[in-house]
Automatic annotation (TrEMBL), chain A:
Protein name as annotated: ABC transporter permease
Compartment annotation: Cell membrane
Residue intervals of the ABC transmembrane type-1 domain: 95-306
Keyword Ribonucleoprotein attached: no
Gene3D superfamilies per UniProt: MetI-like
Cross-referenced PROSITE patterns: ABC_TM1
From TrEMBL, chain B:
ABC transporter domain span: 17-267
Gene3D superfamilies to which the protein is assigned, alphabetical: P-loop containing nucleotide triphosphate hydrolases
GO molecular function (one): ATP binding
Database matches in InterPro entries: AAA+_ATPase, ABC_transp_ATP-bind, ABC_transporter-like_ATP-bd, ABC_transporter-like_CS, Oligopep_ABC_C, P-loop_NTPase
Highest taxon in the source lineage: Bacteria
Family the UniProt entry places it in: Belongs to the ABC transporter superfamily.
The protein's name in its UniProt record: ABC transporter ATP-binding protein
Nucleotide-binding keyword on record: yes
Residues of the signal peptide: none
UniProtKB/TrEMBL annotation, chain C:
Residue stretches making up the ABC transmembrane type-1 domain: 104-295
TM regions (residue ranges): 44-66, 109-132, 152-177, 217-238, 275-295
Keywords assigned: Cell membrane, Membrane, Transmembrane, Transmembrane helix, Transport
Similarity comment: family membership: Belongs to the binding-protein-dependent transport system permease family.
Protein name from the UniProt record: ABC transporter permease
Superkingdom: Bacteria
Organism: Paenibacillus oenotherae
Amino acid sequence: MGNYIARRLLIAVPVFFGITLLSFLLMNMAPGNPVDMLINPNIPQEMLELKREQLGLNDPLYMQYVRWLGGLLRGELGYSFSSFAPVSQLIGERIGPTLLLAVSSLLIGILIAIPIGVISAVYQNSRLDYVMTGLSFLGTSVPPFFLGLGLIYLMGIELKWLPTGGITTLGGTGGIGDIISHMILPVAVMGVTIAGKKVRYIRASMVDVLHQDYLRTARAKGLSEFRVTAKHALRNALIPIIAVIGAEIPLLLGGSIIIEQVFQWPGIGQLTMEAILSRDYPTLMGLNIAAACIVLTTNLITDIMYAAVDPRISYR
Amino acid sequence: MTPQAAEDQGHSRQQLLQVERLKTYYPVRSGVFGNARKHIRAVDDVTLTLHEGETLGLVGESGCGKSTMGRTIMRLEHPSAGRILFENEDITQYSQRQLKPLRTRMQMIFQDPYASLNPRIRIFDALAEPLIVHKLAERSEVQREVNALLHLVGLPHSAGARYPHEFSGGQRQRIGIARAILFRPKLIVCDEPVSALDVSIQAQILNLLQDLQAELKLTYLFISHGIGAVKQISTRIAVMYLGRIVELARTEQLFRQPKHPYTELLLNAYPPPDPTLRSRKKMMLHGDVPSSADPPRGCRFHPRCPYVQERCRQEEPLLTEGEHAAACHYPLA
Amino acid sequence: MSATGMPWRGDAAASETGQEHEQPLPGIEHYARQVRRKFFKHKLAAWGLITTLLLIGIGLLAPWLAPNSPNEITDVFAASPSLAHWLGTDGVGRDVLSRLIYGTRVSLIIGFATVALYVAFGTIIGLLAGYYGRWFDMVLMRITDIFLSFPYMIIVLVMVSILGANISTIIIVLALFKWPAIAMLVRGSVLSIKEMDYVRAGVALGYSTPRVMFRHILPNALSPIIVNATFGVASTILSEAGLSFLGMGVTSPQASLGNMLHDAQSLTVLTEQQWLWLPAGFIILLTVLAFNFVGDGLRDALDARS
């Protein structure tokens, strides 16, 4: 096991460097560099050239990469073109709301998906199963922005039950209740998408488990059908789900851009859109690398967790 | 016609295939960097000669390396060391491209008739494709050639239009045989061709193989885990254990007087047709085959050998020379 | 060579009359027919296929079906649905139904082109990695890890913002971060198929490596690829709609389903001009749903659990 973790960690190292290399090359494709961005007609051309030299922009590409990578390893992601604040600071300010949204949606999504998936599997090929399957497909197929707009229109504007955007009411107290009421709609939209996908996996996994011999044994022992399903089947069926939850992280991060745009949620997604619209490439790259690193880390954790939970996996 | 008779009829004793000190190892990676390497020694220093027209039976328990041996001779696996000479041509290091012309002279029949035919390709196309690839027949002749082949293995011409899943195991193996003889090769490596079949079908397929051998002057390397099938068809038998040949003799000699304890035990497991012959003390093979990544010191068979002596634990016996060769310090009388 | 008088003639006759004593022949049902039967047993898949074909028809026939040219400015602005304009007109005075029809066409083009691109590329890479293994395989797996580490929506947005949004760029960028998944899928299938005896037989028969790979391995690895590609069309259309919604995909004046919803971010459009965004949203939902159902039906019919 220790061996497996060590190997898994070692594999992550080249992947990390690959991520940085790809990001760096991408950044170089972007038009404009920090000096061009400082353009100001009052600064003479020679000064710009000097600044260029100072910042090392005339060095060969690999030198620039090594220098940039060095900074990255010390946690420096550069400075924003538009606000001139350190990118790491910008991300730090916005990551909280995004994580709040993502984690809540993931939890809600799984909580919705487990009963639906289990019922679907237990009553396999019944009318109930078809309805549930149809609903889960609806969940994965509905564009989140469309569902979001629809909910804003219905719940926020027509019925006036819930706030339509932001994280707190302007000029309000900003208490927990306020934040929760602002979270309901975005979490509902993200949760539906996640649940739709998870239902399929849980159903498939549950169907597999329900056909196993040990369940027949459990039934033969005279355990009630509910106990058989809940205790013996579900526990085994949920193991493969762990791996799929890990795969959800990049989708959550990507999906947050649209959700945060629709609900004006002040998180990473909105920061990304702001950076795109103002062509703020250092911020974009910082966001990109941070996101990739989060994904890399969560993948690592899920792999190891999965290996720890499932004794059938052998580590070569 | 018995194999013995075939040989007595004056088939030349010309050497068709020589295998010299052949080794096929597979790396097993372990450790943090995948660096702590061990090797599965599937075939470990085997020397063999096949004469034209004979059938050499290769017997051993599963995992002893006999199938790897067959595949290495066919160069479907890359040998780690040693030499393979086919018709005095050293093919050990040939690339697949260099091997292409040779493929018409050596062919293979596979164990599992359900896995050896591409499920997406009709029988006709499966048999026509090699002819076209090797430019052995004009397009106009292909139909006739394929029909002749099907006829030869006892299948109706209508079989050509069907997919493999429409046939039974025995019929599929006939198709596999048709594919192997389609080039009229000299050597056919038969990798347990009847092991996956029902007993009643086994005899039919063995008969077919023997008839084809006589008709087409084929040489067989016949691999099997059961000594029964091998007895019927083989001129000589080689017994393999953990990657090595432990005994090699003419079939009747081996059955009459095995020299290696392992051979004796294999023969004991094979019920003789005449119950009165069951005078021999019944002994069974005990224990599991040790890992070929980590074979026992000394004689590889010593942990399971009923006659084990101290010397067997220390020193590995070499295969003797001569007509009846055995690798044992204390060969049976 | 003559077979007359050969001893096996006897049992040849036996097998001709089907007397070989083994399990009965499996029901002779043609593979395609079997797939079709299983597919249509899945009611939602059948519905999905009909819808898909209908949408493709609309996309193909857009110039004949649309009442107006999509960018033509009519004499009424922001008009609610009427007989003249069934789905009304937008703020500039363009016919919404016409833009919807052309938007569907654009979405389908992007969906199919992207999937074709990444499936073709991913399949070839996966075949090579699975067949040759060793270092090639190692490198592919690491590249895949790298590509799949970037959250799709973020990296696609960043790249489109750098390269500029037009249809061909969008297709390339959308495909660029999708091929590794297909490559891994194909690699997995190839790893198991290349150990099949019929592949060994192909090598033993002297077939060239490309022949073995493309004629004997690839056709047997096709089922999961087809299923994945069908789901891929659905998710690509959704991604493109998302990009366009954010204003970074297909940009005005060209119509796309996503950018029609872009305008609904304004409160007036959202609350007072539902005809501008509701139909577009429903069409996206319908399209994506239909492709997903087809994919699910194909997965059952081709028995390609992955």
